[in-house]
Amino acid sequence: MKSTLLNDKSLYELGSTVVEAVIIIPAFMLLLLVVCQAVLWAEASQTVQAAAASGDQIACEYGGSLSGGVSAAEGMLTAHSSGLVYNGSVVGSLLPASMAEIKVSGVAESIIPGMHFSVSAVRIGPQQRYRSSG
User: Per the structure, how many domains does the chain have?
Assistant: First the structure.
């Protein structure tokens, strides 16, 4: 009689282990998926920021132009995005007081179905020009 009670108890414990595994494993996999998505978004954000910085540097240097900055940002974005950033766009504009603005935006690669995470960066800097005093 003791052996059947012991066997019944171990069967109940085995059943509870399966139920716990059915709950814990999908939750862990979902957590892992969210962490991977966060890493992809961070990498895409870093790429967009680097492209904006590159465009701003070219647009603001002495003898540089806004169109040169936009093309530098586009080149950097296409060269380094490698599938991380989709629908990337670069917009440049001149602001008052000889300031150049470079905006880079796009959509980060998504591994979560149906979700799209946008990334963008804006860099503003003064255009270097020779100005006579007086």
Answer: 1
